[in-house]
Amino acid sequence: MTGTLESKSCTPCRGGVPPLTREEAAAYLANTPDWRLSEDVKLIDRRFTFANFQDAFAFVRQVSELAESEGHHPDIAFGWGYAQISLQTKKIKGLHENDFIMAAKIDRLFSPEKNG
Ligand SMILES: C[C@H](O)[C@H](O)[C@H]1CNC2=NC(N)=NC(=O)C2=N1
């Protein structure tokens, strides 16, 4: 599934689509195991670690370019040695397949051997 998730592109976020249920989100999460599902099933998040601030910032820059190309944007907090990324489809105030596509693509940008 991750292979297919990562090879997919985000669909335009239309309103009126119901957010994923806990069961649906859990099924997707099995394919992005490094991400956590919030208790309220509203978002997924992951903490990435790096050797320093510059490496964290460079990763954030890559993620921002990916978000622009996919038209689907995460919330990001970062600092020396870390980047905390969360994903939610704002338009439906919950999770959509797009969020898991982005998670799979973001995971590909992060290569542990290069980072902390
Ligand atoms: C018009 C534009 O495509 C939409 O506003 C997109 C932009 N990026 C988005 N990103 C996220 N995470 N959720 C959205 O609902 C969303 N909507």
TrEMBL record:
The keyword Endoplasmic reticulum does not apply. Transmembrane segments: none annotated. InterPro entries: PCD_sf, Pterin_deHydtase. It is an enzyme of class 4 (lyase). Its EC number is 4.2.1.96. Pfam families: Pterin_4a. It catalyses: (4aS,6R)-4a-hydroxy-L-erythro-5,6,7,8-tetrahydrobiopterin = (6R)-L-erythro-6,7-dihydrobiopterin + H2O. The keyword Lyase applies. It comes from the Bacteria. Keywords: Lyase. HAMAP family: Pterin_4_alpha (MF_00434). Belongs to the pterin-4-alpha-carbinolamine dehydratase family. PANTHER family: PTERIN-4-ALPHA-CARBINOLAMINE DEHYDRATASE. This is Putative pterin-4-alpha-carbinolamine dehydratase.
